Amino acid sequence: MGCFDFFKEKLKNKHRRSAPISATASHNETSRSTDSGAGKPTSKSSGSSSSQRSLPALYEEKAQHLRVFNLKELRNATNDFSRLLKIGEGGFGSVYKGSIKPLGSKKDSVTVAVKKLNQNGLQGHKQWLAEVQFLGIVEHPNLVKLIGYCSEDGERGIQRLLVYEFMPNKSLEDHLFNKAYPCLPWSTRLHIALGAAEGLAYLHEGLEVQVIYRDFKASNVLLDAEFNPKLSDFGLAREGPLPGDTHVSTAVMGTYGYAAPDYIETGHLTSKSDVWSFGVVLFEILTGRRSMERNRPRHEQKLLEWLKQCKKFSMIMDPRLENQYSMKGAKEVAKLAYSCLAKNAKDRPKMSDAVEGLKQAMQFTDLGGPEESMEEFASADSDDEKGVDQTNSTESQRRRMLHLAKLNENANAVGMRKFVMMKAASST
Ligand SMILES: Nc1ncnc2c1ncn2[C@@H]1O[C@H](COP(=O)(O)OP(=O)(O)OP(=O)(O)O)[C@@H](O)[C@H]1O
Ligand SMILES: [Mg+2]
């Protein structure tokens, strides 16, 4: 099946903007709705206007550059998906380094990353389709470039592949947590945080349709040769609410440790769900700790819980930085992170505000600075602490969190790490 065929079909229904979503997600997975706060939309992108075009129309206009590969070409490009060329494996499939000849040019081959999605039927197809439709319409220095795709249904099942620009410096996750890599300097951490924030702000506020990324985490922030960050993995992305709607109702999907508690609780997805995940990653950048580390003592396993136990600000900072950071700048970043983790999604900043906050923090270039207690954050995060506690505040939510964790453990067990899915509370 070709992507274009799919979208042409949908274009016949121009007035129904939700069409590609309900086809991308299963028909009962995603819907839009206003909640009891009707008339008070929580998150309206600046791009949201009544004259905005549909996703298929945008795809028709903007995705012409995508190259359609056949399986044979990609076999050749990756030496028949050689294990020696395998560079990663995620919840959706394996990634190989490959090389392709640019079309219609005598230029040298270019290095690419080829993701071969697991052959798990409809789910794999849905992830693939979401990547093609969203990465096909976006263009931003902080989003990974999709070069093309392959879709073949043969005797050996469905084959869905994606071809991306190659990112030579792995992911933020590798550089923050893998001790085999040298410590990421403070200025590089800020540069990466800023770029990632700009990528998210573009998705939320810079397109004709709003795009909610839904899987923001350190492993999805890839790094180019100059350590510029680019968001990858759009398999869970969704179109945001229509003007007048407050949220999109979905089955809860994402990654345990990064998903916003309000989204887990209700299945109501807004751009502020991404903002929460961004706050978690900011704390990973500050602390050098993963959002969830099961091999630590119980009370230290959840990053957000551990933060509450730290009495002095310098205690939270990554010891690998060896105090080579500006205390004032780090505190600014921590304040921003806490605001992203506000209990009430409406109180979280827009990503464009987060971009400004990070730019402010980058103004502080003097290393060191006065040590202070964590109390100064008490006012900023008093609500937010409740927000974090809220994770376990109701019995139903506690059950959902346990379920989510369990699913995640199972996913780990079969190598489908960190990918989780749960029935939407909102569909009840
Ligand atoms: N465009 C790319 N260029 C270079 N390496 C890539 C590219 N895309 C992915 N990779 C590598 O493949 C790895 C696996 O990516 P993938 O997105 O499939 O899984 P993940 O992000 O680790 O986990 P998850 O499935 O939970 O998102 C990445 O961590 C990265 O090292
Ligand atoms: Mg990924």
UniProtKB/TrEMBL annotation:
<dbReference type="InterPro" id="IPR008271">
    <property type="entry name" value="Ser/Thr_kinase_AS"/>
</dbReference>
<comment type="similarity">
    <text>Belongs to the protein kinase superfamily.</text>
</comment>
<dbReference type="InterPro" id="IPR011009">
    <property type="entry name" value="Kinase-like_dom_sf"/>
</dbReference>
<feature type="domain" description="Protein kinase">
    <location>
        <begin position="81"/>
        <end position="365"/>
    </location>
</feature>
<dbReference type="GO" id="GO:0005524">
    <property type="term" value="F:ATP binding"/>
</dbReference>
<dbReference type="Pfam" id="PF07714">
    <property type="entry name" value="PK_Tyr_Ser-Thr"/>
</dbReference>
<protein>
    <recommendedName>
        <fullName>non-specific serine/threonine protein kinase</fullName>
        <ecNumber>2.7.11.1</ecNumber>
    </recommendedName>
</protein>
<keyword id="KW-0808">Transferase</keyword>
<keyword id="KW-0723">Serine/threonine-protein kinase</keyword>
<dbReference type="InterPro" id="IPR000719">
    <property type="entry name" value="Prot_kinase_dom"/>
</dbReference>
<keyword id="KW-0418">Kinase</keyword>
<feature type="region of interest" description="Disordered">
    <location>
        <begin position="12"/>
        <end position="56"/>
    </location>
</feature>
<dbReference type="GO" id="GO:0004674">
    <property type="term" value="F:protein serine/threonine kinase activity"/>
</dbReference>
<feature type="compositionally biased region" description="Polar residues">
    <location>
        <begin position="21"/>
        <end position="36"/>
    </location>
</feature>
<feature type="region of interest" description="Disordered">
    <location>
        <begin position="369"/>
        <end position="399"/>
    </location>
</feature>
<keyword id="KW-0547">Nucleotide-binding</keyword>
<dbReference type="InterPro" id="IPR050823">
    <property type="entry name" value="Plant_Ser_Thr_Prot_Kinase"/>
</dbReference>
<dbReference type="InterPro" id="IPR001245">
    <property type="entry name" value="Ser-Thr/Tyr_kinase_cat_dom"/>
</dbReference>
<keyword id="KW-0067">ATP-binding</keyword>
<dbReference type="InterPro" id="IPR017441">
    <property type="entry name" value="Protein_kinase_ATP_BS"/>
</dbReference>
<feature type="compositionally biased region" description="Low complexity">
    <location>
        <begin position="43"/>
        <end position="54"/>
    </location>
</feature>
<feature type="binding site">
    <location>
        <position position="116"/>
    </location>
    <ligand>
        <name>ATP</name>
    </ligand>
</feature>
